[in-house]
Design brief:
Blueprint lengths: L3 E4 L1 H5 L4 H16 L3 E2 L4 E4 L4 E9 L4 E9 L3 H4 L5 E8 L6 E6 L1 H19 L6 E5 L3 H13 L4 E5 L3 H15 L2 E4 L3 H5 L4 E4 L18 E4 L12 H5 L2 E4 L2 H7 L3 H5 L8 E4 H5 L12 E4 L4 H18 L3 E3 L4
Parallel strand pairs: 1-7, 8-9, 8-11, 9-10, 11-12, 12-15, 13-14, 13-15
Antiparallel strand pairs: 1-16, 2-4, 3-4, 4-5, 5-6, 6-7
Length: 327
């Protein structure tokens, strides 16, 4: 019997592409919508400077199970020279409970979060969408752009973050990588005005995007709010838009909608649907020139399905290190 497969980030990079992650995440949304998943809402431990989240999941039809342990410490990059987000994923054999794999979850988290926006954009943006506005210029902005480039024919993008050098470097590297113009702009308004698709990737606790800046027909991927009191979009914008979520339990607790829900301004009846239900055809997606918003909190099923593909490919290619934890 093989031991537990250990996979580090550099090995995972060689095993999977963003297109494959987008496909895996779409599969995960479908499984969740079809009630093929046992997945409690993520649990939080709150520290003075950050938090720790535990995310378990079991997919019945494919017999895939696992748990992700992930932190969010926003001050890490500047103060500790560590990433804001770090994660470890354990895959478990549902029949025996044996730990099949322990792998870096930091890259998987970055990729599958970008992929979630890619899937949402595929189903909710206008088919002719070609301009993109990006708020934030960190690691998550990079994987958002990677994923959106898989589902859109992007002609032009604009990026804004508070640090001039960061947004300028992001724009330069992205232009070189993708071959279309990515422009660093000086305000959030400039980045989102007249954009067909907008993505927000910040940890802001004060709304950054005003309703008056967003044109009819725009699709917004709200990716940054992932804990109570975080909010990137003005409540007025939420109230005038068609809101699609990944999970009511998670979104109402810590997603983009959590603040107006806590204030009792936004109610469950104001939410149009879960993205998985749109994908499988149980609910409608975009209708005309309405503004659509995808509130993403991240689902454990996305991690487990993606990690399962990585594990199988690693075994096929003989990549990784076997370790016997129970000897």
């Amino acid at each position: 019997m093989s031991g537990t497969l250990l996979l580090k980030q550099s090995e995972i990079k060689e095993l999977i592409s963003m297109k494959e992650v987008v496909d895996s995440v779409e599969t995960a949304f479908k499984a969740y919508a079809q009630r093929d998943v046992q997945m409690p809402p993520k649990e939080y431990l709150f520290f003075q400077e950050g938090d720790l989240r535990i995310m378990p999941c079991y997919v019945r039809s494919t017999e895939e199970a696992g748990v992700k342990c992930v932190n969010v410490h926003p001050h890490n990059p500047l103060e500790k020279q560590l990433p804001t987000v770090m994660a470890v994923i354990e895959l478990v054999n549902p029949e025996t409970g044996f730990p099949m794999a322990v792998m870096d979850g930091t890259l998987v988290t970055d990729l599958r979060t970008g992929a979630a926006a890619g899937v949402a954009t595929k189903y909710l943006a206008r088919p002719d969408a070609e301009t993109l506005g990006i708020i934030g210029a960190g690691k998550q902005a990079c994987t958002q752009l990677m994923a959106l480039n898989e589902v859109m024919d992007i002609k032009e993008a604009k990026v804004f973050c508070r640090t001039c050098s960061t947004r300028t470097n992001f724009a330069k590297k992205a232009t070189e990588t993708y071959g279309f113009k990515v422009e660093a702009v000086e305000t959030a308004e400039e980045a989102v005005k007249n954009a067909d698709v907008v993505v927000t990737t910040t940890p802001s606790r004060k709304p950054l995007i005003k309703a008056d800046w967003i044109s009819p027909g725009t699709h917004i991927n709200a990716m940054g709010a992932d804990a109570p009191s975080k909010q990137e979009l003005e409540t007025k914008l939420l109230l005038k838009s068609k809101i699609i979520i990944d999970s009511w339990e998670q979104a109402s607790h810590s997603g983009e909608i959590n603040v107006p829900v806590a204030q009792k301004v936004l109610k469950r009846k104001d939410i149009h649907a879960k993205l998985g239900d749109v994908i499988v055809g149980n609910e409608t997606g975009r209708e005309g020139d309405e503004i659509t918003i995808f509130d993403s909190t991240g689902l454990a099923v996305q991690d487990v399905v993606t990690a399962g593909l990585i594990y199988r490919r690693a075994r096929e290619k003989g990549i990784g290190t076997d370790f016997d934890f129970i000897s």
